[in-house]
Amino acid sequence: MLPLKQMRLRTVLFAFCASALLLGVVWALDRPFHEYPGVEYENFPLPPDYQEQTEWVFARLMYPPVGPRYGGFQFLGDWRLGASNWTMDYPRSDRHFSEALRRLTRVHARSVEQPVDLNDGDDVFDWPWLYGVEVGHWNLTDAQAAKLREYLLRGGFFMCDDFHGTLEWQIFTASMKRVFPDRQIVEIESRDPIFHILYDLNDRFQVPGAQFLRSGRTYEYDGVVPHWRGIYDDKGRLMVAICFNMDLGDSWEHADNPEYPEKFTSLGVRLGVNYVLYSMTH
Question: β-pairing, 238-244 with 186-187?
Answer without folding.
Answer: unpaired
